[in-house]
Amino acid sequence: MAVQGFGKAYADEILLPAKPAYVGLSFFVAFMLNMLPLTGYVLMIRPDFVAVILLYWAIRHPRKVGFTPVFILGLVMDVTDGSLFGQHALAYCVLMAAGVAWHRRVSLFGIQGQMLHVLLMLLVAQLIVLAVQLAAGNAFPGWWYFLPSLSGCLIWPVVCQIVTSPLRPKVKSEEL
Amino acid sequence: MEYSPPPFFKRGPNLVTRLTLFSLLSLVLLFADARFRYMEDIRAVVGVILYPFQELVDTPARMARGMANYFSLQSTLRGENTRLREEAFVNAGLLQKQQDLIAENENLRELLHLRPRFEPSSQVASILYTARDPFVRQVVVDKGASDGVVPGAPVIDTLGLVGQVHRVYPWASEVVLITDKEQVIPVQVVRNGLRAVIFGLGYDGALEVRFMPVNADVEKGDLLVTSGIDGVYPSGLPVAFVDSVERNAAYPFARITCRPASGVRSYRHVMVLGTTEDYPERPVAPEQGGPGPGGKD
Fold first, then answer.
1. Cα–Cα distance list, A20 to A54, A61, A65, B72, B262 (Å)
2. Are the beta carbons of A89 and B22 separated by less than 8 Å?
3. pLDDT tens across B240-278, in order?
4. What percentage of residues in chain B have a pLDDT greater than 70?
């Protein structure tokens, strides 16, 4: 009966344990995607891949990632972006906490419900960054500022599929 | 220590505690960076470590550009070649005239016992990428401290002033565009020599001249060039064209909006100038507290 409430997304999946190297690799790839030399509209709608991957691990495997590496990753992101030192670190820590705190709740929903939760969390993280920047004396850049949250929520199913696929066992449990 | 609990359920401090701790830490860092700029050294170190990764990520884009260049149509190349030839012809004429003028100018300056004009050193840099932080208007170029770039150096393109070097890493540097909200440049109207100060607005394609009286002689279409009185930018670099002048008697100042002369959105190469000549020491600012300009009264 306990399984009945679970969404279709990964209701009866038993995944292999994720190796720390695999977690690290996923973050590295996301980081490289963030560093792509984009300009113009593409840059405007580009999701924050690191934030999405972070949410993935926080929600699906809440014990795999600690706060310290996330914090350091945020600081590194700040250097590559030339933004205020600590703004990404703060946003990522908040995302991490939100993901871990909600991981049971989000798991109950199907993929659309999960996307809505992800959108909300990404928006909150962006709002925190916005508040920090406004406090530092910068102007609100425009409503397009929130587009990365939207695109991040839209790529959530794809990211889940890609990151989960190597964790699926080669042999179906029913066949045993 | 023998009787400590087994580490089966050891999970460290709980989530809220950890979040509070790390948030406080990042807020401290943010404050130190925004207020006192304490973090520049750490930034430089991390920037060096990240450089190979950035290069790695840039490689596909660079290769794609190289391929596109390689497979460009012959007709395109011929058209471009003809155009460049014509330009070179025109430029040769101008250059000859300019050499003549430079010689004449030097003679005149010598006669008048003026200081020789400053010729800044310069080097070409290509734009690596636009800064990803939506709150700043910056580009990152591929020349850094190892090429002699120093913070504060002006950056131009073929059409005019692009911006100013902000942070310098060993092999790259950040250039703040003139449209950034924090950028302020002393300019001069070419038509009549009127001096003014131009401010970035924080978004693309717009600048604003502030604190000009309503009756100031500024017209639509005027070219504004750097006046060179700040000791940062050499004089005579095109900065902006006046787009509109709004004179409303209800306000003490005219509202003058401009568009930048440079085309930083459309070019891949910029020129980083050396910093300008040694100016005499700035006079010491008068004691704060008296009712002076800028002081609260």
1. 14, 11, 9, 46, 49
2. yes
3. 999 999 988 888 899 999 999 887 666 788 889 887 556
4. 87
Q: How many helices (H) and strands (E) does chain A have?
A: 9, 0
Cβ neighbours of residue B207 closer than 8 Å, sequence gap 6 or more:
B178, B179, B198, B199, B200, B201, B239, B240, B257, B258, B259, B260
Q: Are residues B150 and B262 in the same domain?
A: yes
A–B: how many Cβ contacts below 8 A? 120
Distance CA B209, CA B198 (A): 4
* Of the partner residues B57, B135, B138, the one whose CB lies closest to the CB of residue A36: B57
pLDDT, tens digit (0-9, with 9 covering 90-100), for B190-211: 999 999 999 998 877 889 999 8
**Would an 8 Å CB–CB cutoff place B135 in contact with chain A?**
yes
Considering its fold, how many domains does chain A have in total? 1
Is residue A3 one of the residues assigned to a domain?
no
Domain membership flag for residue B107: no
Contacts of residue A46 in chain B, CB cutoff 8 Å? 132
Looking at the fold, whether B51 and B131 belong to one and the same domain comes out as no
pLDDT of residue B126: 87
Domain identity same for B125 and B268: yes
Domain hosting B222: range is 118-276
Same domain assignment for residues B29 and B157: no
CATH code of the domain covering residue A109: 1.10.1760
- Domain hosting A133: range is 20-168
Q: Do B23 and A93 touch (CB under 8 A)?
A: yes
- For tokens 């040694």, what's the residue? B278
Question: For B129, which of A37, A75, A89 is closest by C-beta distance?
Answer: A37
- Is there a single domain that holds both residue B207 and residue B264? yes
Look up the CATH number of the domain holding residue B201.
2.40.10.340
In a domain, A87, yes or no: yes
Q: Which of B9, B21, B22 has the most A C-beta neighbours within 10 Å, making it the best mutation to test the interface with A?
A: B22
pLDDT score, position B294: 41
How confident is the prediction for chain B on average, in pLDDT? Answer: 84
How far does B92 lie from chain A, in Å, by closest CA?
36
Q: Do A36 and B34 touch (CB under 8 A)?
A: no
A17 secondary structure, DSSP code: P
Chosen from B56, B135, B268 to mutate, greatest number of chain A CBs within 10 A:
B135
Strand partners, B273: B122
Do B144 and B125 meet the contact criterion of CB atoms below 8 Å apart? no
Tell which of A84, A103, A105, A126 to mutate to test the B interface (max B CBs under 10 Å): A84
Q: Give the pLDDT of residue B293.
A: 45
**Has residue B92 got a pLDDT over 50?**
yes
State the ipTM, two decimals: 0.83
- Count of domains for chain B: 2
